[in-house]
Amino acid sequence: MANKIATKLGYTNEEYRKSLLNENRYQDVYWKAIERKEFATKAIVVRDGSSSMLWGGNGSYTPMQIATSLAIFAAEQLPYPFKNHFITFSENPRLIEIPEGTIEQKVRYVESFGECANTDISKVYELLLNVAKSKQVKPKDMVAQVIIISDMEFDYCVRGKSTFETYKEKFAELGLEMPQLVFWNVEARSIHTPVTENELGVKLVSGSSQKILDRVVSNKINCTPYEFMIEDLARYSEVDSFKL
């Protein structure tokens, strides 16, 4: 296959191999150039890898691309023992370690986990608790936020306040705070209130615009819909004050 592609492009096999190698190097340079400190909290991603995530999005990125890139990006920022890990979106979620390698290799590895199922939030918290117990995780090294990135509605994933109360107590027994849950529906059609909070204290994020992406990465989601609107309008303040 590579021989046919190289011939069609007018390259020798060796030239084609070198062009791919250079492209991979550029990708790594761009990836490493991203400002790491912008990820303002210790977050682990629960990544939905179902086939429906391959469609839709904001026109520039598919839901799958957003979920995969954020899973890798967040994993790289986590302290031991969660560093380089993400969680699969599944009835039986797993904590997966991403091997070292180029960004292309990492993407290919993460994308190999494509189970099509709902996720069990209680089992996600159980996974984190088990790691916290076995590794004697200190508060400063504990995951602070669980970001579920999916194209599903939140109600399909979480039912009942008792689950949250139970796990708050379990984390408290270890001297830890239960990680905040953020459910990000990247394929939401209605984005009149892109950041809300339900009665369980769960942050609900809707849409896949660059503004929403920036908010999740910088952890600027602890706001009311009104505050979100006011901040968005602030960029027009200079226009308002302009005198003809």
Task: Describe the protein.
This protein is of the alpha/beta class. It has nine helices and seven strands, in the order ααβαββααβαβββααα. Strands 3-2-1-4-5-7-6 form a seven-stranded mixed β-sheet, with helices on one face. β2 (85-88) and β3 (95-97) form a beta hairpin. The model is unreliable at 1-13 and 238-244 (pLDDT under 50).
Number of helices: 9
> What is the strand content?
5-15%
CATH architecture of the largest domain: 3-Layer(aba) Sandwich
* Helix and strand element order: HHEHEEHHEHEEEHHH
* Structural class label: alpha/beta
Q: Structurally, how many domains make up the residues? A: 2
Helical amount: 40-55%
Shape: globular
Quick recap of the structure?
The chain has 244 residues and is α/β, with parallel strands linked by helices. Helix content is 41%, strand content 13%.
